[in-house]
Amino acid sequence: MTNAITGFYPPNKGSIYLDGKDITGTAPHKVATLGVARTFQNLALFNGMSVLENILLGRHIHMKPGVFPTALYWWLARPEEMRNREVVEEVIEFLQLESIRNELVDGIPIGLKKRVELARALVAEPHLLILDEPMAGMNQEEKGYMARFILDARAERGISVLLIEHHMDVITGICDRMLALNYGEMIASGLPKEVVKDPRVVDAYIGGAHG
Amino acid sequence: MFYRLSGVHHNSYVSESRLYRIPADRNLALFFLALGLVAPLLVGSLYLNSYLLPWLVWTAAALGLNLVTGWAGQLHLGYAAVMAVGAYSAVHAAKFGIPWEFALLIGGISASVVGSLFAFAALRVKGLYLALTTLAMQFVMDWVLTHSPAISGGSHASLQAPTFALLGQPITSDIGLYYIAFSWCLLVTVFMLNLRRTGLGRALVAVREKDYAAAILGVNSFYYKIVAFATSSFIGGVSGAVLVATFFFLAAPEQFSVTVSIQVLAMVIVGGLGSTIGTFFGVALILLAPGVVNGIVAKGAIALGLQLNVETLAHIPTATYGALIIIILMVEPLGLGKLYGNIRDYLMVWPFDQLKR
Q1: Residue B20 needs a FRET pair 20 to 30 A away by CA distance; which of A108, B201, B257, B342 works?
Q2: What is the ipTM of this complex?
């Protein structure tokens, strides 16, 4: 479903609406300019660049990079770079990434990588933020941090968040509405605490416990 | 007094985004810049024009290839063809009476047009297939050059370049030509250094590392690949033209053959993909090492009183040179640029270990 919204795979049937506009089949790089940002289940940071540079890439749609700004950096590119750097620093502070901003992303722990990816998605100032298993491979403490960051991002920035998760504690803890899918088919939707009790959801996700 | 910096501290984003964040790096760069400026006073015209000048021009050319192969991650085996387009169009323009400064520009632009037109077709495939497609471009260009007398002046002919001139002043002195090469190399180097801190550089790395993740951030990877090809072709085209104008003085098809393409690629790989300083080292090694090794072997044979026959004398340097490349890439697969970085990092903190970057 994520890949359909972000334009990687066109849907087999049905269409996708964003803010009332049909975006079915739009190329991924254009979907980004419409205010959709996402993170990946299996991290997709750019190795060989620092945390700061990775997050700055999130500002891409708000910048106009090109050959001439690069050649005439001092006159054409610097003001833009500095403006965007300020936005990035705000998010870095928000996600408490100050101490690692100049580290290469290759070498930081996975919990932080996930946070950098969230930062990269946030600096794009999206309307819709899609988080694909942001808690995968995290320990309880890191999960707690991440949940707090997601809630704060939503509260402070007014972003709609689409969260894909299978950690029931996280979902019931921070989600407003829940939609359960089983092999691409909707099996339940509604308030999280009701959905997790739905027998079909229990059957598909938790399994077996038919008292 | 001898002292070490205790960490690097910046007070503004502007100061943190300088090309050289550490004074030692900046001073070293300024020192070499000054050395380059006064080089004509320090070395004889033989060294100046047969070693330094080609080194600078080839470095500019290799930096252009580094943009497409190192930064954007697209293997390019047809770079000499692009240089040929630039060289031939500039020479023809100059023969037509257009001033050289515009002729160089025409060379760059036509190379850029040919390069990006080709990239439009070639970029539909990736990786090794792209490499093969660019190789095809090289062969097409070779064929066009040798089969169209209107461009090359005939199959085994060469095209005499008109005397180089700037603002109507003919430049014939060795020193003048050296400064032309020096300025061009400086321009390209500054561009490549700027790439490290602009959105363009970041977008290119993003395309190289993970194109799906780049797309989700709004980076149109096809567009940036084309930009990389166009820019690198422009640099290659002007470098080819400068090479002909200041070093070869005539243009011939074999100056831009497939061997040259592979040699420039070797310069980039030995120097380090994506590394600017590494490219300088890489070009020095590929371009100048054969001559140096040759000299050492010849002198060594005489000093030791060995009677080596001509063939052995010719083969030993080639073998040594090949072995040198293999050894360097085994010691540091990321090339001479990384090797330099390692040594620099070590010396920077010696004998302490507090300062990183």
Answers
A1: A108
A2: 0.88
